[in-house]
Design brief:
This protein starts with a strand and ends in a 19-residue tail after the last strand. Helix content is 4%, strand content 43%. It is mainly beta.
């Protein structure tokens, strides 16, 4: 999986994006992101960190100055940004494998 946004890898559009590798090609999964990530009102959004945790991908970043934390698994995205509501951005994600 790869991801980015403004200002990580592009300048326009300045919204977060991510792609997952499947069936011999990259598949854009950005359409699965919540609207506050895909349509930021002010300063843009970006994916800054991605981690594989067992059977799930965890993506962190920011949208309009607020931290975002998303889980991608089985073709769906779950927004758990409420867990980092006091932060401005997520730049590092780690996972423990047993």
């Amino acid at each position: 999986m790869i991801g980015g946004g403004s200002p990580v890898a592009q300048t326009t559009p300045n919204v977060a994006w991510a792609a997952s590798y499947g069936d011999e090609e990259l598949v854009d999964i950005s359409s699965l992101f919540p609207s506050h990530v895909t349509h930021p009102e002010q300063s843009g959004s970006s994916i800054l960190s991605i981690c594989y945790a067992g059977s799930k991908w965890v993506l962190g970043g920011y949208s309009d100055g607020h931290a975002i934390l998303l889980i991608y698994a089985d073709g769906t995205t779950t927004d758990i940004s409420n867990l980092v509501s006091t932060m401005n951005y997520v730049i590092w994600i780690g996972a423990e494998h047993a």
